[in-house]
Structure formats: C-alpha cells, structure tokens
C-alpha cells in the first residue's frame, strides 16, 4: 500500500490547487469560492523519491450540520487513514479562530502535522511566517501552490514522516488493466449515484444527501468484487443547460463528460419515480458518441407499485429504441437489491466492448449478411461488400471494404449492425461500421493509346469520312 498524505484546512485556502500541483493533474475542481470540494479526492504524487497518495478534502467550516457536517465526516475519515496531515492555511487571512480549532483536532489525532502557509505571494513573507510560528509546529512552510512555489520543499519535508518503503511503486505502476475496468456512474442530480457506490463498497465513502448537486468533483474509487477489479467514477449530476447557473457546476458537467470518455463502461442512473427526461437521453447520446458501453440502472425501483412498474417499463422501451442494445437493470441502491445483476451487466458490457474479432470470421459473417439481404440498388447498380476486418474495440469497430458503399442507406447500416451484434453477442455496447470504397487505380488518368491502337483509330476515322461522301 502507498502511504497517504491528507490535505486539511478551512474552505478556500487552496487545498485543491495544492492537490493538482502535487499530482500534476487538473483532477480537482478549483474555483475562487468556498466549498467546491466535498468528497475525498485521491491522486498519486510522483515528485519525490517514492510515490505516495494525496487526499484532497473538503473545507472544515466548524459546522456539523447539513452538507458541511457530511463534508466534515469525510475529512475525519481522511485523517484516520492518513500517515501524515498537511494543514493548509491562508497567508492573506492570517490566523483565524477556526484555524486554531482545526489544528487542535489534528493534534488530537496523534498523526504528524506539517503546516503549509499558502498564498504567500504578494505578502510580507517574514512577517506572515512569524505569525504562523505561534502554532508551535516545527515544520511550517511558505507556499504558493498556484505558482508551484514551495512544492519541492513540501515533498522533501513529507517523505521522512512516511512509513518504510515496501515497494510502494508497485501500486503506482499498476496498468489500466490491473486497476480494473473503469466504470463511470452518471445521471441527473439526486438519482442515487453516490448511494450506489457506497452500497457496492459497503461503506460511506461518498457524501449522500437529499440536496441535489452534492457531488461536484469526479471521484475515483477502487473496488474488488467477485474476483474482479473496478475503478468506479462518481460524477456530478447533469441538468438542463438552462438550469446550470454556477460556474462551478458548469465545470462539474464538463468533468462528467470527460469521465464518460475516460471510462470503459457507463452506468446511467435513472430515478424510477420520475419520467425519463430529455437530459437522460442527452447523456445517452454523449455515451454513444464516445462509443462507450452502457448499462441503464433504474434506481428506487422498490418504491413503485405493480402498475407504476409496468408503465415505467413501457416508457423506457418506447423512448430508448435508439439504444435498445443497452441492458436495463432495476435496482435499489439504498436497500441493495439488484446489485448482483447490475455488476453482471457491467461485466458483460465490458466483455462485449473489448471483444477481439478476426478478419476471416468477420468476412464470413459479412457474406452471410449480404446473402440474406442485399442493399438496395444505387443508380441501377447494387453496392458490393467484399471483405471486413476489425478496426478497434471499445466500441467494436468493423471496417467493410466494397464499392459504392457511400450510397448505402442508413437502414442497411442498421441491419448490418444488428446482424453483427447477434452473431457476436455484443450486448451493452454500440457498434461502429466504417465503409470504405475500393480505390479505382485508373481514376483521373488519361487512357493512352498504343501505336497500333492509334493507327487503327485513324483508319476508322478515314473510313467513316469516306462513307459520308
């Protein structure tokens, strides 16, 4: 296991900026307003002699109620699992009573503490550092995380506090396959995404609240279940554009769409008590556009009676005809029903999306499809489909070579998609078919006559003129 360093402090002191600087990423959402980070956010720092995990936490506001209270619970969980605590304060604000209160809680944990005085750029640094020296913490470091100043000193100061090296690099070097399949959990606000991940993990890893928009950063969580490894990505809820007002929420939506692109399988969470909204269909459109496998999880299913369930199923079948290949699973994230079927569907979708196909088998399947139903004539000629080969996976891509393929109707493309899907059992994933016309080697070239052909042409012209006379 890699050692863990937790970043703790008041809201808006620069913890997420420091997290991004340490992990050399832009994974943590950063904005000039308090309370942007709420859940624990993990990343790996490779800047020192050995890698370690950095945990970005939400700001402690001193309140134990509402979202602030749930955020505080997540911070305390991070404190409990950390080997070292980095207490981040704001040089421009000076020492506030809340800072002293937080430091007291960190000291009571018994963990080593380093104080980072952030935002020292543009201040009288000696005076600022003298003020924070009153904390009595031996390692109190000046920092400007936004300008990467002081990062190396922090890393060098942190390493001696970490437990002995036990091949920490092994976890940091895990390949994408060893980290497991990447599964993004997406949906509208308050659909139950964080509740689902907490249920799968068996712990309150993510903040859950009836308040829509609780999650903002995409949170990556490792899971091992039934002998398989997963990286679950909890994302912010996506609403209609007209209702996305805060700049932070707009960036959260962008991060969600990026998470779909980074995932191998996307689970779309739908609230069974609400009708399928246009925003749900838009999210499915993004998933298909990215070519990602898709499982639709209808949550809060236990709260519907028999008639409501029947009407919900009919509505889903009617509105999801364009993605009829996606598996629909009915679950209750709160009570745990449907979890096994959901994870089985995720595995099947991932298997289909990453399936390796051979050129010879694809060509034989293409021949059978062509014999069963040929494409309509184009200007009196039928398009010819000669052979096929794989063009990649996730999504499965089939490249078909032939002639006049540019004029093949969309209906025939769908026929081929369904034929290949049935033949290879590609459940839960979109399929892409790429038609390619065989190039005409004589296109654009003038037909040069041989000497004998030129003489023959002259004779034919003379004979034609004589007959005219």
From TrEMBL:
GTP 1 binds at residues 9-16, 56-60, 118-121. SMART domains: AAA. GO terms for molecular function: GTP binding; ribosome binding. GTP 2 binds at residues 187-194, 234-238, 299-302. Residues 454-469 have a biased composition (Basic residues). Residues 3-166, 181-354 form the EngA-type G domain. CDD domains: EngA1, EngA2. Residues 438-469 are annotated as: Disordered. PANTHER family: GTPASE DER. GTPase that plays an essential role in the late steps of ribosome biogenesis. NCBIfam families: GTPase_EngA (TIGR03594), small_GTP (TIGR00231). This is GTPase Der. It comes from Luteibacter yeojuensis.
């Amino acid at each position: 296991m890699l050692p863990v360093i937790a970043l703790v402090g008041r809201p808006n002191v620069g913890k997420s900026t420091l997290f991004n600087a340490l992990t050399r990423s832009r994974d943590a959402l950063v904005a000039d307003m308090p309370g942007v980070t709420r859940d624990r956010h993990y990343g790996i720092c490779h800047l020192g002699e050995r890698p370690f995990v950095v945990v970005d936490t939400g700001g402690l506001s001193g309140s134990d109620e509402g979202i602030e209270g749930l955020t505080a619970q997540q911070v305390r969980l991070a404190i409990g699992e950390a080997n070292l605590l980095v207490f981040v304060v704001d040089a421009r604000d000076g020492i506030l009573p809340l800072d002293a209160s937080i430091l007291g809680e960190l000291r009571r944990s018994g963990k080593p503490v380093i104080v980072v005085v952030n935002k020292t750029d543009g201040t009288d640094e000696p005076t600022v550092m003298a003020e924070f020296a009153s904390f009595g913490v031996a390692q109190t470091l000046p920092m400007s995380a936004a300008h990467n100043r002081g990062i190396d000193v922090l890393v060098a100061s942190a390493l001696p506090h970490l437990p002995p090296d036990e091949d920490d690099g092994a976890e940091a070097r895990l390949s994408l396959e060893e980290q497991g399949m990447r599964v993004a959990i997406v949906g509208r606000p308050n659909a139950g995404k964080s509740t689902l991940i907490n249920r799968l993990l068996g712990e309150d890893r993510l903040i859950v609240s009836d308040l829509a928009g609780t999650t903002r950063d995409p949170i990556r969580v490792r899971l091992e279940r039934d002998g398989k490894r997963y990286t679950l990505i909890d994302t912010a809820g996506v609403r209609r554009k007209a209702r996305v007002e805060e700049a932070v929420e707009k960036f959260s939506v962008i991060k969600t769409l990026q998470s779909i692109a980074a995932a191998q399988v996307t689970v779309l969470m739908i609230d069974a008590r609400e009708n399928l909204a246009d925003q749900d269909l838009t999210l499915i459109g993004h998933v298909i556009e990215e070519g990602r496998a898709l499982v639709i999880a209808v949550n809060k299913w236990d709260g519907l009676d028999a008639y409501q369930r029947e009407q919900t199923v009919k509505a889903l079948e009617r509105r999801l005809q364009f993605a009829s290949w996606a598996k629909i699973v009915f679950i209750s994230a709160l009570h745990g029903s449907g979890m096994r079927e959901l994870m089985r569907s995720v595995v099947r979708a991932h298997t289909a999306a990453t399936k390796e196909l051979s050129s010879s088998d694809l060509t034989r399947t293409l021949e059978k499809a062509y014999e069963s139903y040929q494409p309509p004539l184009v200007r009196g000629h039928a398009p010819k489909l000669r052979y096929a080969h794989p063009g990649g996976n996730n999504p499965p891509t089939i490249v078909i070579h032939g002639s006049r393929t540019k004029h093949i109707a969309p209906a025939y493309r769908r026929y081929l998609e369904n034929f290949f899907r049935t033949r290879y059992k590609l459940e839960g994933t979109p399929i892409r078919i790429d038609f390619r016309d065989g190039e005409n080697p004589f296109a654009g070239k003038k037909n040069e006559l041989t000497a004998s052909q030129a003489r023959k042409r002259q004779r034919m012209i003379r004979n034609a003129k004589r007959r005219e006379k």
